[in-house]
Task: structure prediction
Amino acid sequence: MSSVTVRVPAKVNVQLSVGPLREDGYHDLVNVFHAVSVFDEVVAKESESITVSVVGEWADQVPVDDGNLAVQAARALAKHAGRSYGADLVIHKAIPVAGGMAGGSADAAGALVACNELWGLGLPYEDLLEIAGDLGSDVPFALLGGTAVGTGRGEQLSELPMGGVFHWAFAVADGGLSTAKVYAECDALREATGAEVPWPQVDDALLAALRTGDARALGGRLANDLQPAALALRPELARTLDAGRAAGALGALVSGSGPTCAFLAADEEHARRLADALSQLSSCRTALSAHGPVPGPRPA
Ligand code: ATP
Result:
């Protein structure tokens, strides 16, 4: 095989509950991931060494050296297989960069699947999941897709059976937010209030809404503990959230560490109308409509 192409989706966190800061600097999370139909494409071609190039709207914001998560994934896979394989990776980037939609993790997952195929390794998903867990907290879910509850740092996953399709609009802001800075701001805000931080718990009503495909119920349960921190760092996001609510969104929240904001729609047409309304805002660089859940990366 001389070339393998995989499509890999972005995610939105429909519940992100952040526990107290641990001694190792991480937080225990309850993270309900939902993969949506905004896709990067990762192409892996035969090559002597592992290289990467990036094309598309966000290309100039993505490193093309060893800092690229897809390169790190390919190297980790080659190491796991015990040989010095090469691959020329080309990433067609449609997922906003540093937007809270886990685009880098998506590319890492895409590279694992593409190189597993290109190099004829035939490793089972369980092996890829183990490598993914070492690459970053969001990479295992990026490999899985669908909808899943993550606990621990987010890397211990259990898949959720789903009862329907949900339609979304996303308002993408100009410029990213660093995930580390948003967590640090979250800790600082909590310290300032002095309130005890509860242990994160799965929201059973949210899981029931996902299971039964009830968009209205899901809209009322969307929750993100990082949202106050993202709003403190980017106050204009409050206007974006208000505008989406005013345009009839069933629910609105900052996606992960932001600054992308996610809006739940009643149906596909409503999602398109929401995206149109959001794209008019000065706080919005571009708006997208999408649906979820969608499967994780598979070779085309
Ligand atoms: P998360 O939701 O997992 O916190 P994010 O969506 O906020 O992530 P990413 O788009 O994954 O953020 O990118 C975070 C940083 O990672 C970027 O600023 C970029 O420098 C770096 N990066 C490394 N590899 C990639 C990649 N393949 N695609 C995008 N960013 C990458």
